[in-house]
Amino acid sequence: xxxxxxxxxxxxxxxxxxxxxxxxxxxxxxxxxxxxxxxxxxxxxxxxxxxxxxxxxxxxxxxxxxxxxxxxxxxxxxxxxxxxxxxxxxxxxxxxxxxxxxxxxxxxxxxxxxxxxxxxxxxxxxxxxxxxxxxxxxxxxxxxxxxxxxxxxxxxxxxxxxxxxxxxxxxxxxxxxxxxxxxxxxxxxxxxxxxxxxxxxxxxxxxxxxxxxxxxxxxxxxxxxxxxxxxxxxxxxxxxxxxxxxxxxxxxxxxxxxxxxxxxxxxxxxxxxxxxxxxxxxxxxxxxx
Length: 289
Fold this sequence. Notes:
This protein is mainly alpha-helical and 289 residues long. Helices cover 67% and strands 0% of the residues. The longest helix has 25 residues, at 76-100.
């Protein structure tokens, strides 16, 4: 079995003397320690040495989500750990870039510094403050035949891509004047979904459900709500309430699989009433949820 993926990323095999070697002392700031650590791992661990930017992408995305979850949970200790995991993945990308000659760490940081200077000219004595969107639009430019959508990242999840696409087209005036127009569009799309439910045509129903979701994202954007954050909070709220519902069912000897929806709805309403009354913590403590 081989652990190597692409020749450009392969590392020498581990030997006993290397296994006992400590990471070299890094030169520079504290973040350089992460880069030195990754260099050490790639030189001495078969798995780490075999990784490529593409093979590490899934881990990079997962760690970014874990960071967001720790922030949403307002858990500084968890956030500290998740930021370390995310930093490790970023360090991997930088180190591999240096190994292949694609770029250096200095170029990465210099590019970041230059971008921030362009976008904050008033802070560097390079001009007056400008709206962020105007600066970004100027950076994108408008080559003949180009679209304002050309540089929307292809790897975004559908929810975030919808948000970005809508935000981008709003820069050229293709937008509602206020959220009420978007709300009306949501109602129209919901009516179309209802029509397709009656028609029982799966392919058209999928299209209409997609249109409804797209319209809901647009409503959130115009209302000043990020759809990913809103959906994350809705997920957390549902999970919290459902766990409390499960606790009530256990306390009352109710088998949920046999209770039926009306009975479960009554428990659900009870949980919501308790939550609104500010007694969720007491309820969870009493039921062991």
